[in-house]
Amino acid sequence: MQKAHYPLRQIHLDFHTSPDIPDVGADWNPKEFARTLADARVNSINIFAKCHHGMNYYPTKIGPVHPALKFDLLGQMIEACHGKDIKCPIYFSICWDMSAAERHPEWRQVDKNGRLIGRGPFESGWGWPYLCVNNGYADEISAQVDELLSLYDCDGFWFDILMYDGEGCVCPICFAELRRAGRDPQNPRHRHQHNNAVARRFMDRISRQIHGRKPDADVFYNSRMGFQLEDEYQYYGQVEIESLPTGGWGYGFYPFWSRFGRHFGLPMVGMTGRFHRGWADWGGLKHPDALKFECGGILATGGAPNIGDQMHPRGRLNKAVYQVIGEAFREVEQVEEYCHDAKAVPQMAVLVIRDATGQAVVGGNEGPSEGAAKMLLELHHQFDVITAKCPDFDRYELLVVPDSGAASAPLAKRLKAFVRQGGKLLVSHQALLDSRKRNFALANEMGVDCQGACASNPDYFQIVDPALESPVTRAGFPYSLYDGPAARVRPRKGTQTLADGYGTYFNRTWEHFSSHGFTPPLAQKADYPAITRRGNVIYLHGPIFGAYLKYGNLTFRELVGRCLKLLVPRPLVETDAPSTAEVTLMRQGRRRVAHIVNYHGCRRATPHVEALERPVPL
Length: 618
Description:
Blueprint: E1 10-14, H1 30-39, E2 44-50, H2 73-83, E3 90-93, H3 98-103, H4 136-151, E4 156-160, H5 172-180, H6 188-213, E5 218-221, E6 239-242, H7 253-261, E7 268-273, H8 288-300, E8 303-310, H9 319-335, E9 343-344, E10 348-351, H10 368-378, E11 383-386, E12 398-401, H11 409-420, E13 424-428, E14 433-434, E15 439-440, H12 443-446, E16 448-453, E17 460-463, E18 479-480, E19 487-491, E20 496-502, E21 529-534, E22 537-540, H13 544-551, H14 554-567, E23 582-588, E24 591-597, E25 599-602, E26 611-615
Parallel strand pairs: 1-2, 1-8, 2-3, 3-4, 4-5, 6-7, 7-8, 10-11, 10-12, 12-13, 13-22
Antiparallel strand pairs: 9-23, 14-15, 16-19, 17-18, 17-20, 20-21, 21-22, 23-24, 25-26
Helix pairs in contact: 1-2, 4-6, 8-9, 10-13
């Protein structure tokens, strides 16, 4: 019997319903529920057992059932979905549970100052109390999971908010464990590492419990997407990237993280939403074309689209919402045959160097890694996002190491071997800098030695090699890096200079300035280069990738594109499509499939993220 394909038309159905709402399920009709989903071409939906309020929607003997609910809503949803061959993993909230926090305040996370983490008793704004899973709360969850497995034919579990506050929990149990392990509870890195260990211990327990009863059940733990995924993906049945673009994530989030999340041999899901702002935006219904674009972008990277929705407390799905979702899913259905089991065909990778906490050297919306990924996406290169834990650098022709991150001795050794065997590197600013030696870990391969920081901040660069010239990058003009200070480097013998550095008269201070924001560059070039090449390695002395994400200067993107052309003259995809087009290459069996998704943004909503409307013919 042929194995069923992973579902590519998914819904994530929220139902976070206050116990003060009196008419829960009053309009429930299981046949209408299933028909609405089927008509919208949905083939999988996450349905709710327990919400953030701690309310349960089935006859549990462990936690509180929603006081207004008079029947087994969860059981009827499962029966209705299975009647239409729609998968329905069970949603279960973990670290946000108002009921458990009120019943057992000793289960809550505690911050470094001894205060309970999360929403306080008199706060009316958005927020929830945070619970710790290093106590009796984990036992309650385990008992409820057993109950659900006994009561229902479970396709899987979708656990939400397995998350610790950024400061880390030092509740009595976590504090005592830190001390017993010889760790310092005052050290935020130790707290962070311990909280990760607690979460992984919990995931291991619950996953074993589920798979002991239901070996084929899908299990996922949300709110943990990040580079720590490579330390815990073994607990997951799929990788999911939650990214509501207009709800705070932006349109750059999914393209970046999908190119990391697809490495682990698991199905990958891209979760967007029908909302315009964010979760629980009851009055927001996204433009149909925007939803189609988001689904197309998810498919193009090898993901399964999942659209977030929420059901009204009375228990009826909104028909207008599912008309819009249906339009998007019918387009997904038309191209599914080219997407099932497809794998990426990357030529390059952005190498992100993780710091000692296990977090990435990537600063939210200002990280150099995101800037590098944004450039490669707009230049239509085929790339992955990797860390030093990637087992096989040799599958890539070129690695981009953007702006920052010290190379450990093992990573430096691997990169040296990569270059020796013909691999190409594009390195910028302080990436691969060994702070103890005060020089680059690959100084010989890069052909430059670090002499510290440039005196000018910001610095300027001027192109001297014709290969870097274009209508956007012209010789004879000193371009500003905007951010700095840049790295002052001395080229070794045999290193080629592609662009010269230019200093400025003086750095701007409150008493020492000229003109508006910038002091002009000196007429004479500096005694250090701005861009160099040594064999298969090109080095740029400024933080160009972080600056691109921050300022959007197209000169920076064009300059990097010209450098990449020198190192990789034959890209996998050659196209004259505009930078707005997302062009990805996938392999499906023996055939290659090119995806081209092109929508133009409308920027009338500035400073909010751009709103997408119609596809643009190419």
